[in-house]
Amino acid sequence: MRHGKKVNHLSRQSGHRKSMLANMACSLIEHKRINTTVAKAKALKVFVEPLITKSKEDSTHNRRIVFAYLRNKYAVAELFRDVAAKVGDRPGGYTRIIKLGNRLGDNADMAMIELVDFNELYNGGKKEEKKGRSRRSGGKAKKVEVVTPAAEAAPEAPETASEETTESAE
Known about the structure:
The protein is built from 8 helices and 3 strands, in the order αβαααββαααα. By secondary structure, it is mainly alpha-helical. A hairpin with a 6-residue loop joins β2 and β3. It is globular.
């Protein structure tokens, strides 16, 4: 029976398991996605998500706690600088596990674990959107500039028309 045993030991002793999870977490933070087995991916998810939650509040105490787990100052800096900025408004669920099939050598179940906010395919291009700007309001502003008497007297009207075409192409 496995009453109260919530940690998957992954057939490793505790020191090896902690080092392996720390190395995998550093790779995940650096590369934003890694391929591994399903069991290791599930163990990594439990390991790394509390660290990402800690990174949302940038304090010396939280940096030291995260460094005690990761033991890599470059990964800690990346986590608090880039990753925390993207996941600041997310209440949890920072990682996604996608099953890939079986490995050829030993038929092990493989999975890809990735940081959710760094995948542009599943976000629907959310990274490219700019809030508070629409084409319609930008077009009206250009027309107002063309209508002014100073703009009619100056030969700048063709230049504004070329600017409008470049904005509509974007």
